[in-house]
Specification:
The structure holds two protein chains of two kinds. Chain A is an alpha/beta fold. Chain A contains 13 helices and twelve strands. The longest helix of chain A has 22 residues. Chain A is globular. Chain A starts with 25 loop residues before the first strand and ends with a helix. The radius of gyration of chain B is 26 Å and the shape is elongated. In chain B, the strands form two sheets. In chain B, strands 1, 2, 3, 4, 5, 6, 7, 8 and 9 form a nine-stranded mixed sheet that branches. In chain B, strands 14-13-10-11-12-15-16 form a seven-stranded mixed sheet, with helices on both faces. Classes of the chains: A alpha/beta, B alpha/beta. At the A-B interface, α10 and α13 of A face α6, β12 and α7 of B.
Chain lengths: 416, 412
């Protein structure tokens, strides 16, 4: 059978247990991570120093004083420029990190600890990423008061609600520009303005831009955002590489000793990772994929709903959500079937997606994001997230549109 | 001549085996050779297992290996001083042993000397005194003949003088292979690997059966079971793991059996399949992790209704164990952290909301009779695969056409 992931023995329900790889036909889990862009891989190879017969020098330590070290430093600076440009920020306002999670921790813990004397209250939402929730819990243990603003059924928080929650001792407001599970897009510019008015400029704004970068315009500098977290591996860059934008004048308390990254992140820079990040940023800037992703997503969503009547979207209307994320409830199509079983059924057909975000999928609790939307319990248990990326092709989506109903038919025949 | 480092393993129950003792000793030797790093020189001498490690291998690696060798009750790091050796040389070694123990915190000692070679000029009591004086003078440790922190053992034999200080507990039990082969139903939970360990401890080679229900459970569960089998293999040598294709069986039960009886019927089918695998592996018994009363399928009535389908002996080593005891043992043997990985053993879809806790055998038999057993089991067996699992990993190990594996008794 053309397109079938692996052979079947007659009479077997499903492919042999664990034996051999299933061919990946449609990768629809790009919000978890993306495959690297070819130009990213090229750029990274160029600074690894693996050339034969002799390496050219681009692999040198950026802190070395010889010309090859200076060249490596220049490559890192070039990457920094490219990423900063996506926010409209200056190079010296960008700190490279090991990824979005570290950036989130640095932002929350660094800013709150630096401003401890001004106040001990911070604002966030009920639908933030686990890394932000974890940082908030750590601060709460240190005596901070944390207000988690509720969201609308579309997953949105209003500028008015933010302003109303500001107190004289509020030091920081942290929220994600794009939510990783449902794709809700917060009105960051309006929230920044409302926060500034309500706090008289005393409260800083941290935006988790990990899912927004490269999909939507992110002029955080112009919007008055103070801190923003970014990640390379969501836009075709390598894993292990991210950044924190820190507006000039905003001070963070460092966690460690050392010199690199303005004293906040000592240690030799991850040159290949940063160069890869830069290449990914340049690719996103030169050919912004937002419009294409949105069109693909809407076509995919409509096609799937046509083949599986009863499918409904969780959170924002797909037209309003981020261009690459689609969270669908299967409870009318496959009643009572847990999301993880749906995921494995699609997996057997070569389709990768997510039941809950990649981080919480292992925690066996229903998604806190879906729970915050006020959905009925059955909808919490039977939802899957599909997310597209810079290398998602139309052919891949067509394959998925056939494979997903097939997977559900097999499941339904079996369960009755 | 200088003393050379030596590992000493002591066994107890094996020595009681009378006419079968040579077989047990051979099995112990084989097991020790398998556990120790390649190139180790292992022999039995004077009712002890003696092992010399290859150059450069740390003693701790050797003692750790022997602490996983069933049959040994004590594992000691010792020294062998070749004869002829005068008293001064022996005393020097005894002092060295005592010093090492002192470095680990011992404050008191006692000498326990024996001489198997009766031509040695000093009697054992005299040796105790002479060596005791030497050690006390050289180390300043206090003599305590009743409850010393370290007992310095000295054994004068024809070929050499053996010395040691203190010892580590061995796992006890009987050497792997001396009991034959048992097949354990491995689920990935906490209990079944512990049950497998206890059967192995008494000398069983292990086969295992895991019932895979993809996509209702994912490959994460399968990986968990593989990793558990690897831990078990670190004690027994290779484990033969059957991965049964169980999805069809599970779905057939869902379709045809009343909800409160489903788990019981499923467990009967698992035992039937496990017996089919046992025949191919020439295993002589089945092992499960049942503990009396822990869950609905473990009441006396349930155990009876399920267990009756087994024609092989059905061993339940945990029948009298509390969960806390099982968890403690799981931590000790290294399976706990793997067992608690968050991958379900069984999909919640299949768990009855109100399972029958005191079934009659009749109703369970009737429920099972609604299924086409022969077809179901044949399909499950046809779709199953067998793997050979070692501490390093797993590889496919398809059974031969006749369904025979290598003869039992080999430590794998």
């Amino acid at each position: 059978m053309a397109g079938s992931p692996r052979g079947r023995r007659a009479g077997a329900c499903y492919p042999e247990p664990g034996g051999g790889p299933v061919r990946l036909l449609a990768y629809l889990d790009n919000a978890a991570t993306t495959p690297a862009l070819p130009e990213v891989a090229q750029a990274m190879l160029g600074v690894l120093g693996a050339e034969e017969p002799a390496p050219a020098g681009a692999f040198a330590n950026p802190s070395a004083v010889h010309r090859w070290g200076l060249a490596a430093a220049a490559a890192v600076a070039e990457a920094r420029r490219a990423v900063a440009a996506m926010l409209g920020a200056a190079e010296d306002e960008l700190i490279f990190t090991s990824g979005g999670t570290e950036a989130n921790h640095l932002a929350l813990l660094g800013l709150c600890r630096a401003r401890r004397r001004r106040g001990r209250h911070l604002l966030t939402t009920a639908i933030e990423h686990r890394s932000v929730l974890a940082a908030c819990d750590a601060l709460a243990a240190e005596g901070w008061a944390v207000t988690r603003l509720p969201v609308s059924p579309q997953g949105l928080v209003s500028p008015e609600a933010v302003a109303a929650a500001v107190r004289p001792d509020t030091v920081l407001c942290s929220l994600a520009h794009v939510n990783n599970e449902i794709g809700a897009v917060q009105p960051v510019e309006a929230i920044a303005a409302a926060l500034r008015r309500a706090s008289g400029g005393a409260a800083a704004l941290h935006v988790d831009g990990v899912q927004a970068l490269g999909k939507l315009p992110t002029p955080y500098a112009a919007w008055g955002v103070d801190l923003a977290s970014l990640s390379a591996h969501k836009i075709g860059g390598p894993k292990g590489s991210g950044a924190l934008y820190v507006r000039r004048g905003v001070r963070l308390a460092p966690a460690v000793a050392g010199e690199q990254e303005a004293g906040l992140r000592p240690g030799t820079e991850n040159v290949p990772g940063l160069v890869g990040f830069g290449a990914a940023a340049r690719a996103a800037a030169s050919a912004p994929p937002g419009a294409r992703l949105r069109a693909q997503k809407l076509r995919f969503g409509a096609g799937l709903r046509a083949r599986l009547p009863g499918l409904c979207a969780n959170g924002p209307d797909p037209e309003d959500a981020a261009p690459h994320i689609l969270n669908l409830c299967f409870c009318a199509v496959a009643p009572g079937v847990p999301a993880e079983v749906l995921l494995h059924a699609l997996e057997a057909e070569g389709v990768a997606c997510s039941a809950g975000s990649a981080c919480s999928a292992r925690h066996h609790e229903p998604s806190h994001v879906l729970a915050a939307l006020g959905l009925a319990p059955e909808r919490l248990a039977g939802s899957l997230r599909f997310s597209l990326g810079p290398r998602t092709s139309d052919a891949e989506l067509d394959l998925a549109l056939e494979a997903i109903p097939a997977a559900l038919r097999r499941l339904a025949d079996a369960i009755r | 001549m200088a003393a050379e480092p030596l590992l000493i393993g002591r066994y107890a129950e094996v020595a009681l085996k009378g006419g079968n003792r040579p077989d047990f000793e051979r099995a112990l030797l084989r097991a020790a050779r398998r556990q120790l790093p390649a190139g180790s020189d292992v022999e039995l001498r004077g009712s002890r297992l003696l092992a010399r490690l290859p150059q450069g291998v740390p003693v701790a690696a050797g003692t750790a290996a022997l602490q996983r060798c069933f049959g040994l009750v004590t594992v000691q790091a010792g020294w062998r001083l070749p004869r002829p050796a005068d008293l001064a040389a022996i005393a020097a070694e005894a002092v060295a042993v005592a010093r090492r123990a002192a470095a680990d915190g011992a404050a008191s000692f006692k000498i326990a000397a024996q001489r198997a070679d009766k031509t040695f000029p000093l009697t054992s009591p005299a040796l105790n005194q002479e060596l005791g004086a030497a050690v006390a003078a050289a180390t300043g440790l206090r003599v305590d003949v009743h409850a010393p922190d370290v007992e310095v053992g000295v054994d004068v034999r024809d070929d050499a003088v053996y010395l040691w200080g203190g010892g580590l507990p061995g796992p006890g039990g009987l050497p792997t292979g001396t009991a034959g082969r048992a097949l354990v139903l491995l689920s990935g939970g906490i209990d079944s690997p512990v049950a497998a360990y206890l059967a192995a401890k008494r000398g069983c080679l292990l086969s295992a059966a895991y019932f895979h229900t993809f996509p209702y459970t994912g490959d994460g569960t399968r990986q968990k079971v593989l990793d558990l089998a690897r831990v078990l293999a670190s004690y027994t040598g290779a484990v033969r793991l059957w991965v049964g294709q169980f999805t069809g069986v599970q779905l057939a039960v869902q379709a045809a059996v009343p909800e409160p009886l489903r788990t019981l019927v499923v467990r009967r089918l698992m035992l039937r399949l496990a017996e089919a695998f046992s025949r191919r592996d020439r295993a002589g018994a089945l092992v499960t992790g049942d503990s009396l009363g822990q869950v609905a399928s473990q009441t006396l009535e349930s155990l009876a209704a399920v267990g009756e389908v087994a024609t092989l002996p059905l061993l339940r080593p945990l029948v009298g164990a509390d969960k806390t005891e099982i968890v403690a043992l799981a931590r000790r043997i290294g399976t706990y952290d793997i067992s608690i990985r968050p991958f379900d053993d069984c999909c919640t879809l299949f768990a009855p909301r109100h399972p029958r806790t005191r079934p009659t055998r009749e109703e369970v038999r009737q429920a099972e009779a609604a299924l086409d057993l022969d077809a179901l089991l044949a399909a499950a067996v046809a779709g199953s695969e067998r793997l050979l699992v070692t501490p390093e990993g797993a590889r496919p190990d398809p059974p031969g056409r006749q369904g025979a594996g290598p003869a039992d008794g080999t430590a794998g």
